[in-house]
Write a structure and sequence with these properties.
This protein is α/β, with parallel strands linked by helices. The protein has 12 helices and 18 strands. Strand 8, helix 8 and strand 9 form a beta-alpha-beta unit. The longest helix is centred in the middle third of the chain and has 12 residues. The two termini are 27 Å apart.
Amino acid sequence: MAHALTLGRRGMGNAWPNPAVGCVLVQGDRVVARGWTQPGGRPHAEAMALDQAGPLARGATAYVTLEPCAHHGQTPPCASALAAAGVVRVVCPLQDPDERVAGRGFAILRAEGVTVDIGLMADRAQSDLAGFLLARTANRPLVTLKLATSLDGRIATATGHSQWITGPAARRRGHVLRLSHDAVMVGAGTVRADDPLLTVRDMGALRQPVRVVLSRRLDLPLGRLAASIPDAPLWLIHGPDASEAARQAWSERGATLIEVAVEGRQIDLGAALRALAAAGLTRVLCEGGGQLAAGLMAAGLVDRMAVFTAGMAIGAEGLPAVGVLGLSQVDEAPRWRLMSDEPVGGDVLTQWERVD
């Protein structure tokens, strides 16, 4: 199962709108086939493993990281395919909460005489598949907030200069983070200040993450984001008051426009995330800026954080990594639990998960 989970992680950022699943087929103490969800969600992990195994699937045990699908889509259900191939036992950590599955995959297997064991390494599977599970149970994707800060929590000087706080190793690791998420999200202020590309670079041919920008009025410069739409998808989340001229300008360049409600003068962040989940996204990496980070934190929408910390101090006049939260007591502050910490070049990466 540990091997199947490792395989499943290969699909992170590539498999949406489907879950990133891993599958290992075992005969006795020998692995005879393995698979993981392919880019775009198909083939499924089970289909990939069964195709690799051929006749060796008969009598095998399948270790699958999520309940095999039970519905007919572009291909027959994986549960039926496993049984038809002669697999005699399926070991799986989790039931799929998707209403089209939700125990039906296990029922198909049992009806065909296949032994089903549920629960092995469930905690690890829930962590790996958190984005898909949230999209199905809470109608929103997993949100990871990425910060690159000085020791005193600043992301730029008072003049806005920020290149570079962290070193090249940390910046490359940031691209790996992008690669493991379905989308990279920023606010309009970051686009106006930095004119970023938000793509994964220098890692060969790959499926680029969706670039998501929140801009209530669509008052964005037609810079590198617009020019690079043929190479990487761009989704713009805006409010009802975005002008027709701005909508037309971005539509003509190939951007996908998503209108959501506003709260006061800001995009309704909950509505924005629900729209992204409805469009198939399961894992979103938020890269700024401070106002968006604070808004997501205040709304309880930051599930994980990846914080790159550099050994420098910028001072109180610098721009903070997180904007105003309006707290009066320390016990009101949102908290996260440390998952890992490691040196990355001359910087340190700490990863955190929300304390529920």
